[in-house]
Predict the 3D structure of the following.
Amino acid sequence: MEGDRLEPAVTIKNIERELICPACKELFTHPLILPCQHSICHKCVKEILYFTLEDSFNDAASETSNQSSPRIRISSPSMDRIDRASRSDPAIHTGWKRNSLTPRTTTFPCPGCRHDIELGERGINGLFRNFTLETIVERYRQAARAATAIMCDLCKPPPQESTKSCMDCSASYCNECFKIHHPWGTLKAQHEYVGPTTNFRPKILMCPEHEMERVNMYCELCRRPVCHLCKLGGTHANHRVTTMSSAYKILKEKLSKDIDYLISKESQVKSQITELGLLMKETECNGERAKEEASNCFDKLFEVLEERRASALRAIEASKMLRLEKLKSQREEYQGLLENNGLVGYAQEVLKETDQSCFVQTAKQLHDRIQKATESLKSFRPAAQASFEDFVVDVTKPQEALTDLSFHSSGVDIPEINEEQSKMYNKALICWDHPQRAGSADTYILEYRKVNKEEANPAWQETEVLSKSKVISDLDTNSSYAFRVRGYKGSICSPWSREVILHTPPAPVFSFLFDDKCGYNSERLLLNARRNSVENRAGFPLLLGAERLQAGCYTTLDYIVGDTGIVKGKHFWAFRLEPYSYLVKAGVASDSKIQEWFHNSRDLTSPRYEQDSGHDSGSEDIFVESLQPFTLVTLGMKKFFIPKASLAPAAPKDSVNRILPMPSCIGICLDCDKGKVGFYDADRMKCLYERQVDCSGKMYPAFALMGSAGVHLEETIAATYLEYQDEDM
């Protein structure tokens, strides 16, 4: 009998690695199932959201009790109490900011698959508890602490060892207490009871979105249980569902079949385990050999460095001795110029000679030496320099080379950043690939740093990437950043790629859509469903005025504006034109000017008499002297036309320099505080034209199209999330 009790305990103990939470690395406590099908402790989800959302959790400290050790019984708060605490503060489980006007879904970084997971607007409350895993963990705990008895919850001290646990009462009882609280002939006598346990899970699985409804269906698309309200009008209304019994039968058959297949391959698994054991030994030997070879390589580097060090020190020492010798000789020479010393003392003795012929014979040579000493005294110059600036060792490049020192990139070619796919807007999207299409890496390290004149070599910031693209946030505006990437395949890495420099916009990105209500002409303009792209229906104005063709007819401008206005601050937005666009005017305009455009009736008249037609009628030169509440530039036929009426002193006046090639992406920067608007080549973030504008009113992005033209607003860069490909059941 004792052996029968221990056998299942050993079986349960062998699956311990499956019962460990990927976040806290301890046994699961109230595990929740994430949309990616990984499980995580309830308390771990809340702790991760705490650091992710920067919200305060008043009850975080009380729910971080360690329940990992199966040999020590530590009481934990009940799940109901945790749920009540969670409901009291929506920021804990939904991620909404307090005082926020619009709810936002929560992005949760799954520690199991390392991908960002959308939890939805309900956050933690929208997740199911993994009762099956919870039960298995509890069996593991009981098997591990078999020697520790579960005591009766209702006995007076000292409590007796329990013999039963009531699942309806969520309590454990000894025989006497169970008879007292569950007498025969009462409803309590019909309660479900099991052996002693501390895991009291509900008998009915309730829907997390509709808390009063039990789940009775299975959504095949989302792969999760749902209730009938979810199917009728909830998030699963258009999804294919099946009955719970059918899903149970199909999934159990698939799981049983897969388990039987694995059991039938037991001999193959054992042989592979043996092979893995041999590989482990071989890996250990090869690892030690690689360490020894790497150590020898570094020893050679040390020898080279030591040799270069000794050579440099010898050169410095030789130069020092030579300079000291020269300076010493010069010092002795100058000491001879002192009275009663050296040359001066000798000359004084010569002056005592009374014999004229002897004096003249000696004085001539002595006089020459005295003159030379006098000249050197007047133009004093040391015989050697005390500075050793020429002996400063330049270690910048070797230091960079040693910093990048890594294993030889055998089999991993150098990745290359794709400048066409990479772009900088509200965030930076960096894409790369392998030109050779061979030797791709398993992981990548993307490094970036701000390029500025103040700091010569700023530190690199790095991030690990599992794919071939990465979105970088929180970059400073109006700045340049350098990016580089290298690939890793195991411990082998490639050299760094060529650095690519991208420029951030001059101001924060302003998000808006085309306004489909204010002045929008659906007969002439075609707006897509997302309201971020508009086209001019070529020829429609001409056809609408066909009855006047004999008198002459010209197309006019069709205006469309953004749905959001700007009253202060500095903002930037970008757009692209279709290559076939004939004429487009783009810029900013105040609300009063827009009302004037839309409320003044326009006919199909000659563009020479329409002030804002875009033709070179001279209308743009009218407002040179005063600021106007609008500024538009003319684009079209793959050209960018700088207006004549420019308040910028550096603006070109001749027509040749006013026509520039049209960039593939055009940016507009509006500074309401300084009353300036600038037009940019958004790919290079280079300003093409800037002028003053009256920003006293609310300013709107404004566009006008003529003929056949198309405008597409640049989409903001969003962080990408993993899309799960649902398998058929």
Summary: The mean pLDDT is 77. The radius of gyration is 42 Å. The first helix runs from residue 2 to 13. DSSP finds 14 helices and 33 strands in the chain.
